[in-house]
Amino acid sequence: MKAWESIINTAMLGTDKPTPAIADLPEEVALIANVIEASAGLDKEERYLQKAAVIYNYRQSGFVPFQKNDLPANKAPAETRPYCSPEAAGVLNAILGEENDQLLQLWLMQCCKSGQLLLPDVLPVVFEKAQKEMALRKVVIECSGNRGVWLSKMNLMWNWFTTIADEELWQMGTPAQRSEILKSLRLSEPAKALEWLQQTWEQENAAGKLELLKAMKVNSNANDLPWLEGLLNEKGQKVKDEALALLKSISGSSVVKQYQQLLRESVSLKKEKALLGLTTKTSIQIKLPAVVDESIYKSGIEKLSGPKSTVTDENYVVYQLISSVPPAFWEDQFEATPIQIVEYFEKYAPAMVPALANAVAKFGQKNWVPFFLGQNMFYPDFVEMLSGREQEKYLLKALSNDPQNTIAHAIRISDEWGTEFAVAALLKMANWPYEYNRGFFTRYISLVPVGALKHVENITSQQVNLQPTWDKTRNHLINLLDLKQQTLKAFNA
């Protein structure tokens, strides 16, 4: 609008300069400007300010959009799946009001599971959520239907809606996308993932190599060994260290074999006759050879236990070696079954039991885990190796001895807690309401089962002065659990 440019110029240069001419004004504004100009009691500054106010408000009222009538029709294809129920839509609106991504993901998963779709009016809001939180994107796409595909093309920021083939994303994607593609492919086709990485390896920079090697931890296996062994000659020290860490996690690698050989020479099970040959005396003998290959220490095994340690340097080295070899090694070394091996260590070398447990977790030997569950020591890595009732029993036992440490490991579980453990954990949390606050339950509400809802109202803090703080947190938790319950009910009615 030329008149507005004149207003700006006059504001900067003064009213001695020409003010907007009537001919430059839209017809509606010109009528009012004529009245202002005809007012004898106004000086030129007042006339200028009044016309500026009128023109400003006229501009704020908006413009008639550009009209183009020959555009082709652009309509979303008809949906083939039903929309969610009004009840489910109401719960979704409440969840969006809470701004809780955990509950939103649960709602979306339930919607997909039931074969239903998001209502059209909420699509832009949900798309914006998924724009910020990548974990939501896949399930948002599944719940959006044909209208979602159609709408996603209206905003370049929603280009993630269009699925790109894995191979194309591997070639053209961002470092984060390529890493995720590699992890995903390692789960289904580990050999193919290795082949892809080998093809592009020389073109990767040092940082890219490091991140992609970390992705290779998924489903690492003996087929990776020849290539990983070759990476020990890489120029970058961090890349070599990561390759070595991978080799140390795979049975049959040269470094694991080296550790096993040293343990054969250092640890033995001795069975000797005693009391005139009527009984057998059993013991575990630990003694490093007089000369140990220095490459052992260069691979990450520390030689000294430290000045304040109560463990001898020799036992410290052996402890690290036991932690670094597959538990099955001891079946040959001791000529015994797994349960016998654990019993031998418990009785004759108790200080080495945690090292054996470390090896069980490191090499994913789930069949060994039950033999450690009767011990008083809590092994956090075993939690996700257990399932169902065994996991809950293990957590409950650890909770009574070390509640905060147990909870810290329990929140790393991907599956929802059992009701018994959840209630027991909440009873402990009530005594630390500043640590387990509203933000904590907002982040981890996916772990707390709806079955705990009927117990939460009766959970109080043992410290009276902390009760008001816990009351606020508890009310927030009840609200979140109620939304979780409504979500499940809406899709399972």
Strand order of the largest sheet: 1-2
**Count of helical regions:** 25
Q: Estimate the strand proportion.
A: under 5%
Q: List SSEs in N-to-C order.
A: HHHHHHHHHHHHHHEEHHHHHHHHHHH
Backbone shape:
elongated
Low-confidence stretches: none
Please give the number of β-strands: 2
Tally of separate domains: 5
Radius of gyration: 34 Å
Question: End-to-end distance, in Å?
Answer: 59 Å
**Helical/strand content category:** mainly alpha
Characterize the biggest β-sheet. 2 strands, antiparallel
Q: Approximately how much helix is present in the residues?
A: 55-70%
Mean pLDDT score, rounded? 91
Please characterize this protein's 3D structure.
Helix content is 56%, strand content 3%. Strand 1 and strand 2 form a beta hairpin. The chain folds into five domains: 2-60, no CATH class; 86-163; 167-250; 266-362, no CATH class; 381-491, no CATH class. The longest helix has 25 residues, at 467-491. The chain has helices spanning 2-13, 27-37, 44-60, 86-98, 101-113, 123-132, 137-152, 166-172, 175-188, 190-200, 206-215, 225-230, 237-247, 254-266, 294-298, 313-323, 329-333, 338-348, 353-362, 388-401, 403-410, 419-429, 438-444, 453-456, 467-491, and strands at residues 267-274, 279-286. With 493 residues, it is mainly alpha-helical. InterPro entries: DUF5691. Pfam families: DUF5691.
